Request: fold
Amino acid sequence: MSKGNYVDILPLSGKYVPFSGDEVIGTVNDMTSSNWLFDINSPYPGVLHASESPWKVEFGATAKYLELGDNVTARILSVDDSKHVQLTMRDQSLRKLKGGHVVDIPYAKVPRVIGKSGSMIEMIKEYSRCKVLIGKNGRIWIDGEVENVLKVAKAIRIIDEESHTHGLTDRIRDFLESSFPSKHG
Amino acid sequence: MSMDLPEGMKLIDENGKRLDGRNADELRPIRIEAGVLRRADGSAYVEMGKNKILAAVYGPRECHPRHLQDPTRAIVQCHYNMLSFSVDDRKRPGPDRRSVEISKIVGEALEYSIFLEQFPRTSIDVYIAVLQANAGTRCAGLTAASVAVADAGIPMRDLIPACAAGKVADTIVLDLNKEEDNFGDADLPLAYIPRTGEVLLLQMDGHLTQAEFNRAIELAKGGCSQIYAVQQDALRRKYSIAAGENGGKEEEARGNVA
Reply:
C-alpha cells in the first residue's frame, strides 16, 4: 500500500520487534533473584519482574515458579527507545504453559496462521481437538494428543512455507481432512 | 598494477573480442540464487563467470562482543573470507590485510542501505565466503550479501549491485576477469544503486585519464543495472518455486512478492 511518498511493505521474513501490548509466548532463558529473562523469538530478551508475575514471589525464590525452559504467555508491558523490553503476566488470561509443544514461525506469518477473523486457526482447532495458542512473536504452543499435536505442527509448517500462495485455506483443509479422517464423516 | 604480459597472450584480439570471447561492454554470465542455506536467516549464492560466492546473514541479533553495541542503532559486522582452495596457489586461511579491507568497505556499503535505526543494540552479521575466485570477488561478494540481507527480511533502502570496469590493452572494458585484472592497466570496482544513482563503493587501482575514468564509470553503472535485475529476479524466484511445486500458482505468487 502506498500513500504519498510512503510505501507499506508486508515482509515475508524477518525478526520480531517487540511492541507494547503484544501478547507473546516466551521461554525462560535466565533468571536472577527477582527477574526472569525470556527468549521471545526476537533480538531482544524480555524481562519479567517478580512483581509482574501472577504469584507472590519471595526474593531469590524465582526458580520455585518458573524454571529454565518453561513457556509462558505474557504481555509486553513496555519497550523503551533502545528496545529494553518489560513483560507482564498480571492478567487472567496470561499463564504458565504446562506440557504441550512449541513451534516457531516467522512473526510475519502469524496473521496467515490465524486467518481472516480466526478462520484458519479455528479450522485447525476443530479438526485436531488440540489447544493452540499463538504469540504475536511467532511462537505457537500446541497441546493435546501427541499424534494430533504433531499433525498440527505439520499444518503450521505448511502454512509457513506456502503463506504467500493462493488457495492456502483449501489446501490446509485437505491436509487436515486426510490427517484427521474420523472427524466430519 | 600491471604485470608483464605472458608471451603470445593478447588481452583483446583484432576483432575487439576479449580472452573469454566477450565484447568490451559485456558482463560475465551471472547467476544468483536466494535462500540457499537453511540455518541462516538469509543467504545467497552468486556465480559470476568463474567466481563462486556464498553469503549468509544472521540477525538482527544480540550484539557480541557487547562493547560494540550501539544503543541507537544496529551495527553491521561483515566478514569477507577467501577459502584456501579458492585460488590456484593455496591461500593461507584467515584474515589478512586484503580481506580486512574488503570486509570494511562491503560492510559500510551494506550499512548505508539497511535501516539500522530500527534495530538498536543489535548486530547484523554478514559472512561472505569466496569458494572460487576469478577477479571481482569484492563486487560479487557485495552483490550476494545484499541479496542475503533482503532474504533475511531486514528492511533496506534498496538492493546493492556492484561490478568493476577497467582498462585493458588501451580499451575500457566491463567486469575484468583474472587475466585482465592481472595484466591490465586499471581496475575500478563500483557499487551503485540504479534507482537513486547513489554510489556506495568506489575504488581504483592503476591509472586512468579523466575521459577514461568517466567512460569506466559509465560502463560499470550499466553493469550494475543488469546485475540489479538479476538480484531482483533471484528473490522473486525463491518464492515462485515454492508455489510451483504445490499446485502451479506460479504467476499469482509472482504478483504477490513483486
Notes: Helices of chain B lie at 97-113, 137-151, 178-183, 210-245, 250-257. Confidence is low (pLDDT under 50) at residues 247-258 of chain B. The first strand of chain B starts at residue 30 and ends at 34. The CA atoms of residues 74 and 245 of chain B lie 37 Å apart.
